[in-house]
Every structure is written in structure tokens, then in C-alpha cells.
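so my prof wants the structure for this chain in the C-alpha cells format not the other one, which i didnt know existed until like an hour ago. anyway here's the sequence
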Amino acid sequence: MVSPKKVGNQTIVFENGPFIISGHTIAGPMEGQGPLAASFDTILKDTYDGEMSWEKTESKMLENAMREVVKKADILLDSVDYILAGDLLNQIISSNFAARQIGVPFIGLYGACSSMALSMAVGSMLIDGGFGSKVICSASSHHETAERQYRLPTEQGNQRAMYAQWTVTGAGSVLLSDSGTGPRVTTATIGRVIDYGETDVNNMGAAMAPAIADTIINHLNDLKRQPDYYDLIVTGDLGSVGLQLLVKLLVKNNVKVADNFNDCGVMIYNTEQDTHAGGSGCGCSALVMAGHILKEIYQGKFKKVLFIGSGSLHSPTSSLQGETIPAIGHAVSIEV
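here's what i got, hopefully its the right format
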């Protein structure tokens, strides 16, 4: 029996879509020098923030983003049913250790850089299904922790490819609720794992673009919508290279691409910051979604937003074994 909430191939339409009643962001110092700095709640003065390691800093950022998003909504932490969170580190230790400090029932998610959109999709399912009334959805990354896990320690000063992206230091949280006012999550399109054979771990935009195109096409087909239904269609962290490839793939599949398309990895840095192809990491879309975009929605600039998180699902082990890079994209629509 097919669920009455399942539409088409991959999309869920929520009967009681949750309200996004608050968002909170904590950004690193470099992100605090970018064009979206005014939309972040807290900007760290340095990449350690008083901790002895970058990994401890990342977990601290995430924990604080979780706690503050609840305070901002003026509710008690005890009233939260679940925390959903993910990050890039092995065994999602940033999320696990942050949840350890808070004590709320925790569901750890790994969608790589799609984790923020994935947490919002799953959190919406929990609320729409009646399994909870309030859910924290979060994600984080840290430039230094990701670099030494996936590539090489930054202290070595290795040359970066011009098409490579800069892992964002930051954490973002949104609080979903079954009651309230403001924007609601109305649909979720769960992505498929897509692999076009890319092997260059520096070129994540190219690896992820086909998966994002697949999710967007299925979302629009499932709901019989055109791209101009949305005021903004924003991808997670394709960067400038991946965004160009996405546009080409969509046009090839007869999707009308207009100026309502953008990418969090392109938005978060200035070209003068020399991040090459832009931002990446779980914290990239978490910061832009829970900060800039959510505030634009609250202020009335956007009424309908399609947010597609992009995830590169490789690991250092798979890359060393010569594997290609699979990718995924998860989408949620947010409407006033």
C-alpha cells in the first residue's frame, strides 16, 4: 500500500508540515568576513574558541547552536522531543558529543554536506507523523577538522586546485514545531545515490551536480511544478563549478533555469577571500539556511524556497582504494 503522503517517485507531501520557529548560527572568523556576516548570530574570533583542538571547537559550536535555537524560541529544552544532527567527522563525533552534553533523545544522521537538509526532512516526517512536537535539526563542519581527515593538515600548506572548495567553519540549527507561526516545511524529496564516475576528491562540485539535478527533476515532476513556483531554489554547496554543471544538466533535461537559482557555497564567501570555487561542508548550508535565508523568509523577501542539500559520499578509505565518488541530494520546500 502506497502512503497517501508519498507523491510520485521520491517526494513526501506533509499534511501537517512543521513550522520553523527559530534558527541559530555560529560562524567561524573567515565566514564572518564574508557577505553574509550580518545574518550570523555569533562569529568566532579564532578557529579554536578557547578549546585545545579543532574537533572540540566544532562540537562546542554545534552544542551551542542547539541550545541557543531553543532559547530563541523561548521554550524549555525539556520540551524538545528529538535532536537530529550530522557532521563530516568519522562516526559523526561532533554531533554525538554535542548531543551527549544536552541529554535530549538523539538521532545521528550522515548525509555528508546534505546533512542539514536531511535533518529537516526527517524531522518534518517525525512531526507530521505525530511522533513528536518539537525537533532540533542541526549540522556543522570545521575547515581544519575536515581538511586533516579528508585531505592533508593545513599546516603543510599544500597547493589547492582552483576548482576545489573551502570547507566552512560553522554550525546551524533550526527548531521545528507542530505549532507556531511563520514558514512551514511543506514537502521533502529524498534523494538517490548518483555516481557519474568522478574520482577527483578536490572536485566535489562535479561529483555532486548530477545528484542534485536528479533530485530537482524528480521533485518538480512529482509535484508537477515549474522552477518559477519558487522564489528561490538554493543548493547546498556545489560551489561555482558545480553550480555551472547543474545548470547545464537541468537545461539538458528541459528544466527552465532562471535567476532564482543559487548555491550556498557561492553565497557565503566574497571572491576576494580566495576560496577558489566557494564553500563546502555541512556547516555551509547550515549557516546559510538557518541564518541568511531564514531571515529573508521572516522579513517577507521569500515566500517559497526549495532547499537542496548536496552530499559527497566518499571517504579517505574509498578514495585510496580507487573508488569513484557517489553523491546525493535531499530537498525540502519551505513556504509561508
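also thought this was worth mentioning. The two ends are 32 Å apart (CA to CA).
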